[in-house]
User: Which sequence fits this backbone?
């Protein structure tokens, strides 16, 4: 095919679409450089816009599905663009942001569309754990695209977005309330961040790019945040405690609607990125809480982000319903992920640490306890039932046994944490010769 058009004439064929507007909003002003701009599908404009630039000063790559071109249908040219982008990001060592808005695959390509999706998924899997992948779902994300978006390290959705494997209106049981909605994706743990609209979703993605490391051999940190002058205090829990310990405006919570007895958030402490886990939002942890924490800690581990766990829990939920549902599997995965993680791990026991839950978290490099913490093989109430007497829950006794490295006052937590994270920054672990642990899914 001979091309006789000038650059100006070719530029006119490229639409100023919503996809380009979203990418412009993501990247720093005038930094976006489009790649494969004139790559076409059988002479027609491609349904994906892709390129690179800087996000809050950090190099990043991104693609956006263009719903104005065949409804954003995925085809061979779209797959080629995304594959090339993934490969380039891995070579350079920079994160990838994918913005999803598509009605599905281009059925006019027949079998080739399945191959196109397969190629993209393979490319995504190959760079998983090498550079961060962030998915931003702003419209419909269906079928294979829904799997691809869910393969990202963190998935962000706008409130009006839809994500489903099979169209809810096309399932044998009919459309169930909430099926395919962003709210349900957040509640089921598929979506890590639920945003009000495109602007908020893109802003969240920008913040994640700034706080995550560029790749798996870079250190995570950002000096855009300011030092927090507030102090931790006895009685603080979850989000409030993390906010007091972290640098100002640095906290990004993940999975707020899923596993609500646990709190997970990325944040900055003295300009170093830290993964916070707090288990003090309810008395006991459910299977959903365990799954949420395990995935979060796994993310932190692959990018060597220190994990700080604020422990205040009476253990795992115990009921016949939980046992029948196989909740022990998720509890086991939680323990496996913590034990296998080679990143720096710091535990701070702020309240109760009883039984199996204490053991599941007991693989930290350093463990501290507040002076009013309670540590025991089971709750005091259970001890009375099974043993007919009370047992000591004193953190000082735990310290005497070497179970904790120090007993601290609540107001000293920030200094203790900063020192512990700095001390463990140079941690090096030689893992056994194997592919990976066989995690209990």
Assistant:
């Amino acid at each position: 095919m001979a091309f006789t058009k000038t650059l100006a004439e070719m530029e006119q064929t490229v639409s100023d679409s919503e996809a380009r507007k979203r990418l412009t909003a993501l990247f720093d002003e005038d930094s976006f450089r489009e790649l494969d701009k004139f790559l076409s599908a059988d002479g027609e404009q491609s349904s994906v816009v892709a390129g690179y630039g800087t996000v809050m000063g950090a190099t990043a790559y991104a693609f956006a599905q263009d719903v104005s071109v065949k409804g954003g249908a995925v085809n061979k040219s779209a797959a080629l663009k995304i594959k090339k982008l993934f490969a380039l990001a891995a070579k350079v060592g920079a994160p990838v942001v994918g913005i999803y808005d598509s009605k599905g695959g281009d059925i006019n390509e027949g079998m080739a569309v399945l191959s196109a999706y397969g190629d993209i998924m393979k490319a995504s899997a190959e760079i998983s754990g090498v550079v961060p992948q962030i998915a931003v779902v702003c419209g419909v994300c269906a079928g294979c695209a829904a799997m691809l978006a869910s393969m990202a390290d963190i998935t962000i959705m706008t409130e009006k977005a839809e994500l489903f494997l099979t169209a809810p209106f096309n399932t044998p049981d009919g459309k169930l309330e909430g099926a395919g909605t962003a709210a349900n994706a957040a509640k089921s743990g598929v979506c890590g961040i639920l945003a009000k609209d495109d602007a908020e979703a893109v802003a969240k993605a920008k913040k994640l790019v700034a706080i995550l490391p560029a790749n798996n051999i870079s250190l995570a940190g950002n000096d855009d945040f300011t030092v927090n002058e507030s102090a931790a205090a006895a009685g603080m829990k979850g989000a409030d405690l993390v906010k007091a310990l972290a640098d100002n405006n640095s906290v990004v919570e993940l999975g707020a609607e899923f596993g609500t007895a646990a709190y997970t958030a990325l944040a900055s402490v003295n300009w170093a990125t830290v993964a916070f886990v707090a288990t003090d939002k309810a008395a006991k942890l459910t299977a959903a809480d365990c799954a949420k924490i395990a995935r979060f800690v796994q993310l932190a581990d692959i990018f060597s982000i220190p994990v700080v766990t604020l422990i205040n829990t009476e253990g795992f939920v115990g009921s016949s319903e939980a046992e029948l549902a196989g909740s022990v599997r998720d509890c086991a995965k939680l323990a496996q992920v913590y034990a296998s993680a080679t990143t720096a791990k710091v535990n701070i026991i702020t309240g109760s640490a009883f039984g199996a839950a204490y053991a599941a978290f007991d693989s930290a490099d350093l463990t501290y306890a507040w002076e009013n913490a309670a540590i025991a093989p089971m709750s005091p109430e259970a001890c009375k039932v099974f043993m007919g007497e009370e047992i000591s829950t004193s953190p000082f006794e735990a310290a005497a046994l070497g179970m904790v490295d120090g007993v601290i006052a609540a107001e000293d937590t920030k200094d203790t944490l900063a020192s512990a994270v700095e001390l463990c920054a140079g941690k090096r672990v030689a893992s056994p010769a194997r592919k990976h642990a066989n995690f209990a899914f």
Summary: The two ends are 51 Å apart (CA to CA).
